[in-house]
Specification:
The protein has 185 residues and is α+β, with helices and mostly antiparallel strands. It has one domain. It is built from 1 helix and 6 strands.
Amino acid sequence: MKIAKLNLKNSCLPSGRENSTRGFSLFISVIVMGSLLLIAFSVANISVKETEFSTSNRESQYAIFAADAGVECALYWDAKHPSELSAFATSTSGSPISCAGVLIGNGQTIPGTTTAVLIGGGGSSNPTSAIYFPMNIGSNPTNACVIVTITKNQNGSTYISSYGYNQCANPSDPRRVERGIEVTY
């Protein structure tokens, strides 16, 4: 009596397709790894953008705080004396004044402009004073600076325009941030 042996391995597949499932696990692994890599790149890109955004926000704060300091300095020197003796009076020169620990005098050129500092004394034909000072004094110095113009109008009102910058060394820097505050009283 002879016993027949049956080979049941891959017996359900038609002839010639015995190896058709080879590499399927590798293909799934590549798809999963590619998806994970895409997610990792997306998270890294978002992190870089958030870092740039927070840096921009910090630089904007430097600029707005500098502009605020400029307004406060102008208000102080304008209110320190009666209107005829104000540091920015058009009839007399108010030079020098001190803001943020910096002595400001007439004649120095404002960086990035052709404008010279003028504190009062412009007469009725030129009622606008212009001052500039850096914000690099104290325990936490920055590269910020401020340019302030003070106009004494004929009707007795005063217009103050203060523009703060996050850095003043290079006015053409594309990352330079400008923030302004205007006050009329």
